[in-house]
């Protein structure tokens, strides 16, 4: 969905609605919650407590492709009229159905990443396969756009009398759910969670069958979205008297070294008798110490009704949440009836204040904090959009490594694990909904997002949409203003503590912009100054900036190879890191901004098409390997001395030719040396870089960074010899044996002096044995069409990534790597072992040994 014309859209005259003249007070919010609670490290978000059970329903599914056009290839679905005509007769969800030919799959699962690439450039951006990263999804590809999932499971007789829900964190897309032959429900969008009450449909004391048809023929976005049940699934069992879903809310006001918490929740009585229920609130700190308690007195709740509860509690000297010190608390909420706990949950939260000031930018806990943000989609190398939880924290850490302190979840509601990782690790978030509309589904998506995540301290901005051309300034600007106003009001009602914004690619003078609490500009550095002068009481930030492009490790823009130079690649509507940060980083009244994007993502292979299959916008590539731009940000977004010289120094055949050598550093001056001979000293411009043209001679190029006349950092690039040896290194040497944790392995090739060869592109084969399995490979090359799932991968400019996942038996995972047949055997073989440790098992829905009919 990238084209140049939409950015050069001419804005005619003053806005239809005119500028907002309403005085806007500085927005203050203080709050709240969500993150890992230390006592339950394996449950990063809100956790069920006894007597509630929340069982992970990820293991042991069976999967088969259906068909979007031909019912005879879709297990007869839609062949006649019978699928929905009678309850209890839908055969795929009955024990008699034989799924022996279906494939075994654990969740999360994205089948799109398993598909071959298909070259289809028919039509325009909206119809061809570029956005899907050339994966065959859509109505023109019926054989690969529909998937069925099926699972047999036991429900013990003792569960009779409980309420039992199946809960999906999200699936892509258009699901129809059947249980025990009965149609249960539908859900369409691919990002919001959904749940169904199965209580009436279950076979207590026997086998049960769940079957889902997932249809990814339609998309929600214009970027790679994946296909299938790509987020976690849960089976939740509760007492009929229980807490409402995502109704427990903690808000805080911080004053004079103390926090006053206001606590609220809803109890639902799905029993047959009225009950007298009270709520007990216990607030514990990160070490598990109780720091406050409160009780909401008993109320009578009629059968079939909900009841609202409130309470207050004080915490003296609260440990405030911030990126530097992401302190979390947990509130344990218990529903008590006749002295017995009927339901309980633990809700992580944080205490902090957040304020957007139109003159002075963003303040966290009363201190100015520039938003050094990146926009991000949700897919990663090897796994598509089905990320194991650990990859979320891995990706947050990659971004933090360059000083990024905020992410925008463009352009959809994030996974709970991404939010939890940000809470736990101290990353701010701008949390965005997918559908910008006040229609029922748009408001429903928004409501779920706000209710689900309003306790997360990381979230500082709700975003109601991105670049809605018609609603911003097109023919529908008047309607856009009404739609946005309804959405903003809805957010405020659910969460009065946070600002609401939208990512607007325009002048923000009409349409959706009037009702926004803070104003977000996408690109267009020519707009914010004029807007600020005209609307000095409205706080402004960069909701999307930059769109710089680079191919990691490439230093020449070469259309014949679909590569983009790492020195200065940027799209016509974008800005280089230096351009946008020199703008946003030097105006105090701007709160900061979010660069497009932290990571490459599949689809939108700008500026090229086939054979490029992923974008080149990332500051890191699809695996998370940093590009050179990463170090520009590191220099200016972190305080510690930093210095990065590029390119590599393997330019055999270009002896005597000029090679541009750039240095990103936050030191005062840099001296560059070639083979020990000084090429001069240059002063580093603030927020800029220094560069030389160096006649290439093999050897060593060395940059010495000085501060106050003292050499503080030295970095060298050395001409390496040929690759001799493989090196495997893992992010961790021990992982959990829970069937979900992963080790992320970097593959490199070293020369005879153990120096990584930055130009190595050897094809490597892998063998994984023992207590784990391979779940994906990648190399960050936007033009690579090798399989993400095969046990082999070529290095791209010196690097490849292998992701291995533990089984549920503790042991050792052995990873062996060897040059495959196309690679000279001179690089030898290498191996690595990862231990998997026994952990207290996360409660799961036990697998039933039936294959096929039961
Ligand atoms: C923006 C859009 C993003 C992405 C980006 C590429 O306009 O919001 O989703 O398409 O352009 O530069």
UniProtKB/TrEMBL annotation:
Which organism encodes this protein? Dyella mobilis
UniProt keyword list? Glycosidase, Hydrolase
Q: Where is the DUF4982 domain?
A: 656-712
Species classification: Bacteria, Pseudomonadati, Pseudomonadota, Gammaproteobacteria, Lysobacterales
Show where the Glycoside hydrolase family domain sits. Answer: 726-826
Q: Where is the Glycosyl hydrolases family 2 sugar binding domain?
A: 99-237
Family assignment? Belongs to the glycosyl hydrolase 2 family.
| Residue stretches making up the Glycoside hydrolase family 2 immunoglobulin-like beta-sandwich domain | 252-352
Q: What protein does this entry describe? A: DUF4982 domain-containing protein
Is the keyword Hydrolase assigned to this protein?
yes
Taxonomically, which superkingdom? Answer: Bacteria
Give the InterPro entries listed for this entry: Beta-gal/glucu_dom_sf (IPR036156), DUF4982 (IPR032311), GalA-like (IPR048230), Galactose-bd-like_sf (IPR008979), GH (IPR017853), GH2_Domain-Containing (IPR051913), Glyco_hydro2_dom5 (IPR040605), Glyco_hydro_2_cat (IPR006103)
Domain Glycoside hydrolase family 2 catalytic, first and last residues per copy: 360-510
